[in-house]
Amino acid sequence: MERLTHWNEEKSLYEAFDGDTHQIALDILAHYENTGLTPEEIKALKSRLDYQEALTDAWESNAQSGSNLAHKYRDLLLKARADRDYWELEAKKAVAKLGEIQILMKGSGAE
């Protein structure tokens, strides 16, 4: 992000852009407010993004070097996703069965 303001030697902000500074400031504020995020939330998201980019860089570096660890991690990740999908399907089946039981119980007058 390009800064539009800078600290001077007295640690007070001074303007670093020309033009209608009031309108520019309002435009920047409007863009910020449109995110719906607080400064703390933005910092937290930035931190997570930086962490994920570092992991991605490490992953790509290991994958390019032919690291067995990267391949093992990929295999584990694929198995975990398959397991997740399997158990998600099983949970949906159980919910559907429960719904059928509830319909049968309402139909028989037993609640």
Keywords:
111 residues, single chain, mainly alpha, 3 helices, 2 strands, flat
Describe this structure in words.
The chain has a two-stranded antiparallel sheet. The protein has helices at 21-35, 39-64, 68-108; strands spanning 5-7, 13-15. It has a domain at 1-36. It is mostly helical and 111 residues long. 0% of the residues are buried. 74% of the residues lie in helices and 5% in strands.
Short overview:
With 111 residues, the protein is mostly helical. The chain has three helices and two strands; from the N terminus they run E-E-H-H-H.
Write the topology of this structure:
Layout: E1 5-7, E2 13-15, H1 21-35, H2 39-64, H3 68-108
Antiparallel strand pairs: 1-2
Q: Number of DSSP helices?
A: 3
Distance between the termini: 61 Å
* Run of helices and strands: EEHHH
Strand order across the biggest sheet? Answer: 1-2
Low-confidence stretches: none
Average pLDDT confidence is 76
What is the count of β-strands?
Answer: 2
Share of residues in helices:
over 70%
> Gyration radius, to the nearest Å?
27 Å
Percent of residues in beta strands:
5-15%
